[in-house]
Amino acid sequence: MHTAPNLGTGYWAGINLAEELMVTLGKPARVVNDADLLGLGCVSGKGFEMMITLGTGFGTAFYLDGKVLPHLEVAHHPIHKGEDYDAFIGEATYNEIGKKKWNKRMQYVISIMKTVFNYDRLYIGGGLSRKLDFKLDENILLVNNIDGIDGGVKLWEQ
């Protein structure tokens, strides 16, 4: 892992967590973020697919024909007046601005994802995903966090 901005980069910078876990536990280990894992349990395996997770922050993962692609930390990219995605649509903001304004922001965010990434299918999970109250495009699916268990199995298959 090169950095972990949400965990404090000073301590985590340069730490190979998978290796540390293997040494400590004496067992093989693989490490991915929560969006990567959830998406592995959901994606169709056809074309370019994207997973976003809505919760404390904004998680993202990308897949090509079912294979997870190298991680891109979209959450820390600026979106509005110096705010990154985590600050713009994260749980703290939801609690501050309420469901109606948050949903407007989510419509904006999804329009950006659609234009920038041109995905074949977008999956949305995480605790705040159940707060979405607008009609989603046909190629956008809400998923359950339990799908992450299947993602763990698929991670080892890759």
What order do the helices and strands come in, and which of them pair?
Elements: H1 9-12, H2 17-25, H3 34-40, E1 48-54, E2 58-64, E3 67-68, E4 78-80, E5 83-84, H4 85-89, H5 91-117, E6 121-125, E7 140-142, H6 147-157
Parallel strand pairs: 1-6, 6-7
Antiparallel strand pairs: 1-2, 2-3, 4-5
Q: Terminal Cα separation, in Å?
A: 19 Å
- Whole-number radius of gyration? 16 Å
Strand order of the largest sheet: 3-2-1-6-7
Structural class: alpha/beta
User: Would you state the CATH class of the largest domain?
Assistant: Alpha Beta
User: What share of residues are in beta strands?
Assistant: 15-25%
The DSSP helix count reads 6
- What is the strand tally? 7
Provide the CATH superfamily of the largest domain: ATPase, nucleotide binding domain
Q: Note poorly predicted spans.
A: none
Bulk shape = globular
Q: Bin the helical content.
A: 25-40%
Notes on the protein architecture:
The structure is a single chain. With 158 residues, the chain is α/β, with parallel strands linked by helices. It folds into 2 domains: 31 residues, no CATH class; 125 residues, 2-Layer Sandwich (Nucleotidyltransferase, domain 5). It is 40% helix and 18% strand. It is built from 6 helices and 7 strands, in the order H-H-H-E-E-E-E-E-H-H-E-E-H. A 5-stranded mixed beta sheet has the order 3-2-1-6-7. A two-stranded antiparallel sheet has the order 4-5. Strand 2 and strand 3 form a beta hairpin. Helix 3 packs across helix 6. The model has no long low-confidence stretch (mean pLDDT 89).
